[in-house]
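Hello again, I could really use a second opinion on something today. For a while now I've been wondering how a particular protein folds. Please have a think about how the structure follows from the sequence. Here's the protein in full, and shout if anything looks odd to you:

***
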Amino acid sequence: MGKLDGRGERPAREQERARGEQAPRGGGPAEMGNALEVLRVATTLLVVLYHAALAYVAIPLRLTMWVVYDNPGHTGFDGFIYWVNGFAMPVFFLAAGISAPAACESRGVRVFLTHRANRLLRPLLFGCLTVLPLSYVLWGYGLMVTGRCTIDNILSWRFGPLVRHDLYGLGHLWFLEYLFLVCLVWGGGWSLRRVLSRSTDAPRGVEDGWIPRMIASPWRPLLFAVPTCLIFLLDSDTMLRVDNCIVPNLFRLLHYALFFTVGGWIAKVSRPKDLFIRHGTLYLVLSLVVFAALAPLLLRHAAAPLHGWARIAFCGLAALFPWLTVFGSLGVLLKVVQGRGPAMRFLTEGSFWIYIVHLPIVALAQLMLLPVALPGVVKFLIVSGVTVVLSLLSYEFIVRRSLVGEIVNGARKRTTKPGFLGPEFGWIASLGVLVLVFAGMALHYRVFFWGDNFHEEVPGQIYRSARLTSKKLEELVDRKGLRTLITFTSGGNMHAWFASQQKVCEAHHVELYPINLRPDRLPSPQTLLDLMATLDRAPRPILVQSSRGIDQSGFTVALAQLLGGAPVGTALQEFDGKFGQIGGPAHSPLARTFLAYQRSLIASRRPHSAQQFRMWVHNEYQPAVILPNTAPLPSDVPGADRGQIARGARRPVIVR
């Protein structure tokens, strides 16, 4: 977050000397410059590791909808993410606050806010137009492959409560929105204080009152933890809450504004190095002790909100922990860090870009590793390493000297070696690659998006498609000579599309079988038997259609393939991505029926045949014992929601 703290502004003392003005009394933020930069860079990298670890926690986050959870998780990752989450953002806000007084004194509040608007809102807009759409695409894919939504939910933009709560937001870019709002509040408070200070009896708490005494006190972590604890008592989820929402949460805003304000107060300390080094190591050790005491309560609260004395203890420890960590880390780094080498300067420059770009890289790496059989720790290390390396490489070759760097960092680095292809080549090439990728995807899925998802699966015998209009259905009946239409609905004549298709079938003597088969559940044994009986007696050619031509269509055609003696692998191809079945058969609730049959054959060393499959359905198929391969999904209770064929399980509605 190195660019968010006003480093681009000249220090107040230097500017006033240039104007021949008297330097303001107190203030020594320059003493903390190198230590603050190291702290910001380290915290940025910890945020990357925090996001990389989220997929491998033992208990999924209660207040955050993450892209994917990879089983089995490990409790160690739970402790790590909550440790980072407890102090990372307070560090950024406190560091940003340290530069605020010098900026306001040297240039005035209006220039300060204008500068912050350019430095925060311009990158926010850039991120919303580039990084955020990529994140939404990856989240949509992750939600589909883990069974939390379907392609139909995305195309119709209708989601369940779990997804709907986090549907609209700024992703990880919320930080820029919050920081700008805090800067607005700070600027207003600064102007109000200037007005009040014109009165002779106005208090001067920052310069010579109770505030310097709090900052200088060895009990300062405890003193500042008191207002933080009050915020947590009002909303105990403040420390954990990282939801995707455009409207800021008031308590989170107050929490971070307090750290920003304290950063502004610290900027007025004349010799901060002597002050903060004194107890830095002790604070840092105590922060680990406090977190060790906090961790059991934190894990319980992460699963379900605490109540009573447990909640009070949690809020107190959670409030003390970030202050000990911030003051302790700052003190230790002030003692250890003496300067910045080339590597640290590069990391300081690139830390803001790392924060902006890292999230889609993390999500993509986690999704790619989801089907790979590796321990969670190994996956975490791969995701972390790949993300850091790609983020730094993208900064060097795409951002640092280009127009993107000017937008994100406020200025581009100048160099005497612009490169053979020029400074803009990196982002132009990246944009070209993205265009080619999405064009390739559009070409691959063209039948799904623009061709009614129509496919001939058994030549001249079985077809599958999305739900057709009556006109297209009539054309297909004439062209292919269809004799049977199997469609999926729970409403029958309640739907206008069904009534119009029924008229087409009556006019052309096509048998119509409306079936109630849910795409998000394993079919009950009776539903499966009824559908098998329908396929046995239905005259060919058959068209199987469903809402998008994905789940129920794929299941029915795969069932027909098995009944015709086709191999299980051939049947499972009906759940391929080309039909819009994201994630393949392993991530389709209906396909788990055939995966269970396949496992049964392997376990018993039996060869597949149509008769073998029928025997398995009659004697062994039990939805309640078929375990999901990814996120839990509901299954039918035998005897309930049987999905009977409308008005008679053994008869079509219309018979030729």
Q: What stands out?
A: DSSP finds 28 helices and five strands in the chain. Strands lie at 455-458, 462-466, 484-488, 511-515, 542-546. The chain has a mean pLDDT of 84.
